[in-house]
Amino acid sequence: MLNSLQGEVLAEISRNGLVESLHSGHLVMLNADGSIFLAKGSIDLPIYPRSSVKAIQASGMARSGLRLSSEQWALVCASHSGSQRHLEVVRSILSDAGLDESYLRNIKDKPLGEKDRLAWGEREPESITQNCSGKHAGMLATCAVNGWDLESYLSPEHPLQIAIRTELEEMAGEKVSRTTADGCGAPLFAISTLGLARAFRNLTISSDPLHQEIVKSCRANPDLVAGEGRLTTRLMRVIPGLFMKEGAEAVEVLTLEDGRTLVFKISDGSGRAFGPIVQAALAQWGVQTPDESIKIYGGGAVVGSIEALL
Question: What class, spelled out in words, does domain 2-308 have in CATH?
Answer without folding.
Answer: alpha beta
